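RECORD TYPE: inverse folding
INPUT: structure tokens
STRUCTURE:
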């Protein structure tokens, strides 16, 4: 089965960029509509343990699309490049959206839009 997953990365939850949204409400809104097969919130994917987490997830060959909502897409592709390479994950299956400085509803819409235009 080809799976779609959504990861929310939130700069440890301490960065002001994520203070305007309820991250649990954001991720639950996507779950409620069953837009993906699994979701997770990670505090810092660009830290060493985030790398390990990403490698572990990306090594799953049944993942067809990995949506990551967090910082800028260009930043994401630079910071996650090594983890994806080590996991032999095709980076064309990574879809990124910047949700920093958004309110809850805005972040939900941005993620829904990312998933919809790439499905
Ligand atoms: S990957 Fe981006 S959103 Fe996640 S902690 Fe690092 S800078 Fe913040």
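DESIGNED SEQUENCE:
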């Amino acid at each position: 089965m080809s799976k779609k997953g959504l990861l929310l990365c939130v700069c440890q939850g301490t960065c002001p960029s994520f203070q305007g949204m309820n991250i649990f409400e954001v991720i639950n809104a996507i779950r409620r509509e069953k837009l993906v097969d699994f979701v997770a919130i990670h505090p810092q994917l660009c830290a060493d343990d985030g790398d390990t987490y990403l490698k572990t997830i990306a090594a799953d060959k049944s993942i067809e699309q990995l949506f990551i909502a967090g910082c800028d897409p260009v930043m994401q592709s630079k910071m996650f490049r090594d983890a994806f390479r080590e996991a032999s994950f095709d980076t064309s299956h990574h879809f990124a959206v910047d949700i920093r400085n958004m309110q809850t509803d805005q972040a939900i819409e941005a993620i829904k839009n990312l998933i919809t235009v790439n499905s």
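NOTES: The first strand starts at residue 3 and ends at 9.
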